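ESCALATION

Customer reports they have been waiting on this structure for their group meeting. Please prioritize. Original submission:
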Amino acid sequence: MVRTALKYGTLVIVGGLLLIQLVPYGRAHDNPPVTQAAALSPEGQKIVDTSCADCHSNLTDWRWYSNIAPASWLVTNDVDEGRSELNFSEWDAPQPPLRELLAVVSEGEMPPLKYTLPHPSAKLSDAEKQQLERALTALYATDPPPIRAGE
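Update from on-call: job pushed to the front of the queue and completed.
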């Protein structure tokens, strides 16, 4: 009885996982063109490339699991949200004020745990946070983006 229930339960789970692959959301992995790249220092660019660019640029590395639901839904949502908040590939478009970026970096909100768990090299040390903060401050001083209305 228990063995039969486990067998049917497994079939239902596998069938459900196969069915959700038919949902189209999370399948279109496009990287829009770079309209103007942020002119970061080489040190800052290295940190951004390792820890930020997958969600905050148009140069996302769409890994294999980003093609399998439900992971594809989560990854696509995170990239869409990240690009809408800050996009280093569209520096000619409105971006958040510097103080907001410095706050999320210094408080350890970025990169988030859900990204650093599968990408441990993306986790920022205290020294890297400080280096990124200096690079962002210099970027906003030398090549400020348009600031969003109301901010």
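Sent to customer with the following note: The chain has seven helices and no strands.
Escalation resolved.
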